[in-house]
Amino acid sequence: MAARSVTTAARALCAAVVLALALISGCSTAAGTESPVPVATAPADVAVVDEGTTGVSEAAAVSSPPVRIDVPAISVSSGLMGLGLQQDGTMEVPPGAFPAGWYTGSPIPGALGPSVIAGHVDWDGAPGVFSRLGDLAADDDVIVTLQDGTISRFRVTQVEQYPKAEFPTTTVYGDIDHPGLRLITCGGRFDSGAASYDDNIVVYADLIS
Question: Could you tell me the residue range of the domain that residue 14 belongs to?
Answer without folding.
Answer: 3-207
